[in-house]
């Protein structure tokens, strides 16, 4: 399992220290339009505190994925975003991308190295960590998601569930403050979905999960944010929002 540093002598960038009263994520007035003029986000504001597990739900085209892509600077809109008090801005992106573990809906977009181990090692490696620390983090991340036995395998030989967990390992190895997951249960069979739900429930990370899986929301994510047409239309305890059937139906959701 080789580990090759792209830049010898590069030093790891220290992450900011989060104070007790500071949110892990603070978004203020986020606006974004695609080049074709479609307005995807409209004055979106949201805060997440340390340890919160939050669902982001809404119909297709609501802006959920677009919102997640702003959290580590892949997309840039108007407004402000801070992670652990650090602005999401070009100069800060190396640190931001170690603080925000973004897991794409399609794990094939995340797994591109020759082996599963090398995928898990990629993030820590590019943080400038020493080789022994890269190896430790990669293996601990793979063990945490239950795929350590697949470390030497090629990712395209894995099942859908194994790929999802391997993709999570690629961000867990960076020890992020915030996990942002886009449709993590999409395409999984019932057994793989249950394993994923147990993993999400056990992880201690602050978590924002964009999903259509309302069963997972009910079981795993105590707070729910409803987004529609680029606007947050509701935000509160999952149990309370699920009792508002009219609200969910109005925004294309079913509390099942």
Folded structure, characterized:
It is a single chain. The protein has helices at 64-70, 93-99, 116-126, 131-144, 160-172, 190-202, 214-220, 238-243, 245-250, and strands at residues 25-33, 39-48, 53-57, 78-83, 86-87, 100-103, 178-182, 206-210, 223-228, 231-237. It is α/β, with parallel strands linked by helices and 256 residues long. The strands form two sheets. The chain has a six-stranded mixed β-sheet, sandwiched between helices. It has a four-stranded antiparallel β-sheet with strand order 2-1-4-5, with helices on one face. α6 (190-202) links the parallel β7 (178-182) and β8 (206-210). α3 packs across α4, α3 runs parallel beside α5 and α4 crosses α5. The model is unreliable at 5-12 (pLDDT under 50).
Order of helices and strands: EEEHEEHEHHHEHEHEEHH
Total beta-strand segments? 10
What is the gyration radius calculated from CA atoms? 18 Å
Principal-axis shape: globular
Overall pLDDT level: 91
Helix content: 25-40%
End-to-end separation in angstroms reads: 44 Å
Strand fraction band? 15-25%
Helices, by number, come to: 9
Q: Poorly predicted ranges (pLDDT <50, ≥5 residues)?
A: 5-12
Q: Biggest β-sheet: count, sense, barrel?
A: 6 strands, mixed
């Amino acid at each position: 399992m080789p580990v090759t540093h792209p830049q010898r002598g590069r030093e790891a960038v220290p992450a900011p220290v989060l104070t007790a009263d500071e949110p892990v994520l603070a978004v203020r007035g986020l606006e974004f339009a695609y080049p074709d003029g479609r307005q995807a986000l409209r004055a979106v504001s949201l805060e997440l505190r340390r340890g919160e597990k939050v669902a982001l739900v809404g119909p297709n085209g609501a802006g959920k994925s677009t919102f997640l892509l702003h959290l580590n600077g892949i997309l840039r809109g108007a407004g402000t975003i801070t992670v652990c008090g650090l602005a999401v801005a070009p100069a800060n992106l190396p640190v931001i991308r170690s603080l925000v573990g973004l897991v794409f809906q399609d794990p094939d977009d995340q797994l591109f190295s020759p082996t599963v181990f090398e995928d898990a090692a990629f993030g820590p490696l590019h943080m400038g960590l020493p080789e022994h620390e890269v190896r430790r983090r990669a293996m601990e991340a793979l063990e945490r998601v239950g795929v350590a036995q697949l470390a030497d395998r090629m990712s395209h030989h894995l099942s859908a569930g194994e790929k999802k967990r391997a993709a999570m390992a690629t961000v867990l190895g960076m020890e992020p403050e915030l996990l942002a997951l886009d449709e993590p249960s999409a395409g999984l069979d019932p057994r793989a979905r249950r394993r994923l739900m147990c993993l999400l429930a056990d992880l201690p990370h602050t978590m924002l999960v964009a999903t259509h899986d309302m069963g997972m929301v009910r079981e795993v994510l105590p707070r729910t944010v409803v987004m529609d047409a680029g606007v947050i239309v509701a935000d509160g305890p999952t149990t309370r929002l699920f009792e508002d059937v009219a609200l969910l139906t109005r925004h294309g959701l079913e509390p099942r």
